[in-house]
Specification:
The chain has 2 helices and 4 strands; from the N terminus they run ββββαα. The strands form 2 sheets. The chain has a two-stranded antiparallel ribbon with strand order 1-2. The chain has a two-stranded antiparallel ribbon with strand order 3-4. Helices cover 31% and strands 24% of the residues.
Length: 51
């Protein structure tokens, strides 16, 4: 399980259809709406994601 970087919901990586590769990392999302928000300005969400 991982955390959606936009809304903070828990996401199952194996079941999620909503994912984006950005700067060598894969981000998983709970919905297409969160993907859209992320893709509009990914840098702050990628930076805030704790890994």
């Amino acid at each position: 399980m991982t955390i959606d970087p936009v809304c903070g919901k828990t996401v199952d990586e194996e079941k999620s259809m909503d994912r984006v590769d950005y700067q060598g990392r894969t981000f998983y999302f709970c919905s297409p709406e969160c993907v859209e928000v992320f893709e509009t300005d990914p840098a702050p969400y990628a930076k805030a994601a704790s890994w």
